[in-house]
Design brief:
The chain is an alpha/beta fold and about 250 residues long. Helix content is about 25%, strand content about 25%.
Length: about 250
């Protein structure tokens, strides 16, 4: 009698655990696609007219096409993922891409559960001009126009280089001690916005060296300008390892 009761309970627990693992994987995949979409929206914002929800959906669908996301776990399938976007204009340069969806978790021997999940991704809109066409080919002879970010250590030959995309990540202050940038360095407090501590969240970038208490802090702005490859080299800048042939 006891075995007849224990077996279904154990089976239900195993199936529920598998569903939770699948749900965590789904959330991670959606978050990754949101961040990549926000990066592309940053490039769209160069027009100064902001970005639209239509553009957000189009870019998200392209970005998630080969992601393997299991939309069957979302009520309404892919159409059940609702996106909203704000910012990206000169008045509000921080792009905020938000997603809301309802996750369905079978209860097996218990009641089915439906969770409303919210996720968001931030990116700073591009500021500055872009070089004329043919830059990448001409830069190899030292006379073509290259792109340099303010306070950068490399120069870029392609305006589409992902290293030019400034993605702002939101995190909890309790996570700060364990966070590192791509160079392995700790984040210090921003001298502009973090003098009086932090709020409920902090904001960082993967290539930055400071954490911010305000997502609109000017320290999170990326200013771009152009010069020749020879001029960039004369300033001690090296080619970008991704688009400029550097190592």
């Amino acid at each position: 009698m006891e075995a007849a009761l224990v077996l279904p309970v154990c089976l239900g627990a195993i199936l529920l655990l598998m569903q939770l693992i699948g749900a965590l994987t789904l959330c991670s995949q959606i978050n990754l696609c949101l961040n990549m979409t926000a990066r592309h929206l940053a490039a769209y914002s160069l027009s100064g007219e902001g970005v639209s929800t239509v553009s957000a959906y189009a870019l998200y669908y392209v970005e998630s096409a080969d992601s393997g996301i299991d939309y069957s776990m979302i009520q309404g399938g892919r159409a059940g993922l609702l996106l909203t976007v704000s910012g990206g204009s000169k008045e509000d340069p921080v792009i905020c891409l938000r997603a809301v969806y309802r996750l369905s978790l079978p209860g097996f021997f218990l009641r089915d559960r439906h969770l409303i999940l919210r996720d968001s991704a931030y990116a700073r809109a591009f500021i500055g001009g872009l070089p004329r066409a043919g830059t990448e080919a001409e830069a190899s002879d030292g006379h073509g126009q290259v792109i340099v970010a303010e306070n950068g250590v490399v120069y870029h030959t392609s305006p589409d280089c992902t290293y030019l995309h400034l993605t702002i990540q939101k995190a909890l202050p309790s996570q700060l001690s364990a966070m590192r940038n791509i160079y392995g360095d700790r984040y210090r407090a921003c001298e502009k916005c973090a003098r009086h501590g932090h709020g409920d969240y902090i904001y960082i970038t993967e290539m930055g060296d400071a954490w911010h208490s305000d997502a609109h802090c000017s320290g999170l702005t990326r200013h771009l300008h152009t010069c020749t490859a020879d001029e960039a080299a004369g300033q001690g800048l090296r080619p970008c390892p991704k688009c400029g042939g550097g190592r």
